[in-house]
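User: Hello, can you help with two protein structures?

Assistant: Certainly.
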Amino acid sequence: MSKILSELLGATEPMFSLALKQLEAESGNPSADIRLTAEITGKLRLKTQELGLDPDDTTGKELYYALLNLIEKHDQHLVKQIGGSDPNDVDTLMPLIKKAWEDVDVSKKCWVLKASVAKGMLKKTPPKAIMKHLGYRSVDSMLKREKLGEIYGALRFVESPDWLNHFNEQYKKLKPSDFETRDMEIVEMPAERWATFATPFVHKKRHNITHLKELGVILMLPISKENNLRGVTIFVMPLLFHYLNEIRLYSAFFKLKQMQPKFGEIVANTLVADPSSAAVMAGQTIHWRVIQRYFGKLEKEYHPEIFEPHVQPEDLHWRQAEELLFKVDPELEFWRDLDYVGEVHAGRPVTMNLLDIAASYVNQSPYAERAIYHFREALWNEVFVRYMGQKNLEQQVLEQLDNDVIKPEEL
């Protein structure tokens, strides 16, 4: 069974199989890989039948194009659901997508940098390229008249790498008192100002969404006419919910780390490099994303003491982007719990991950170049989540987090 998971993940062998054996041994051999593989196979067969195909006589190419046809229908339905009419009218759709995200009843609270502190960082290191572009001679004048999220969003596109490196050094000096709890927001970057700078990002990523973890801001970049994307609604909507999860993920992480003496360095390193070593489980480093996902899916009554008093159950609560999307359009229920479901064909997975199929549709990707990134990330996370469900491995992780918070010098 590990061979199937290895092929789906494109994992390096024999390292992957050895890692699974170590997880199995330290967890008491629960055969989590066998159960996960069986679950993936069962879901794949069921959904293939729902598509009107024969699970025993369907090629990878037939499955892929059936999924693309379905995503096109769902995109058209979602457009109407949020009040649009033309799936290709990006200028009209972006404000409707933003409003639909804002109207969803889900917590958007996050623990992020105070606006006064963020402004102070800009005053210490004025973004001269942005100031020149917008016609300001003083940073104070700019900050009085402009949206803070918009200015921060423009930094990575307009300022030079050297300027960014210098600016990022300021994060190392941050203290927990520089943070506060507030609602995250979506900031639209006006095309007349930022289209020229944002076009390379949109062209490369084939979408216009990014985020600022430290400010709790999701950015909607302008889409130029030459980057006009078909299927933008079915791709952008789940991305917005994906980044909602991401901001809350890092918000909880920063809350957990606030008692460490090198808090600012942790924030800076997380924003710049995002290391995947929050803990070690059976010899494998795991990202905070896996830990948050695991504890976030448990019942609220189970909340380990290590997370108190700073990290509350609602900080850890984890939802798939698709789950939130169903609140906007229940017609999309087909995609529920399929983020880690796929099958290898011609050496590459055909996935049922909504974001990957939407990405392939937006990009008009041929079969050989189908998107698999979000699927593989989800499956890696799911493998570790399944093993963390074994009490002794869960305890391994909790003990490390406890040491990390109380006795960081011992790590």
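That covers the first. Now for the second protein you mentioned:
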Amino acid sequence: MPKFMLILRGDIQADYSKYTPEDFARILGDYEAWSSKLSAEGRLEGGQKLTDQGGKVIWPKPGKKVEVKDGPYVESKEVVGGYYLLKADNYDHAVRLCAGHPNLQFGSIEVREVDFMGGPED
């Protein structure tokens, strides 16, 4: 069965100050409920939230050298906040599985099929 990575993006400039601790607890519960539902269906392979701070961006340079910079950048409008890996029948099915995902309140979800490059699916 094909596997898909869901890349969760959010607006880095959003104002979250209006949210109370209770709001954040409810939102976290929504994420956990969505994950639990897919896990119970045997579709969720894994996923995690990424840290809000730090990170590195590696850029290729001439002569097989690389340049390492801090990232993501403040001037970015979106930041990758987390990911999931799930099993779905096809792209349309993977998109349908995203219905009701709480990240859609704050940003977007990019859906990409995992390419096993001719090898066996793990």
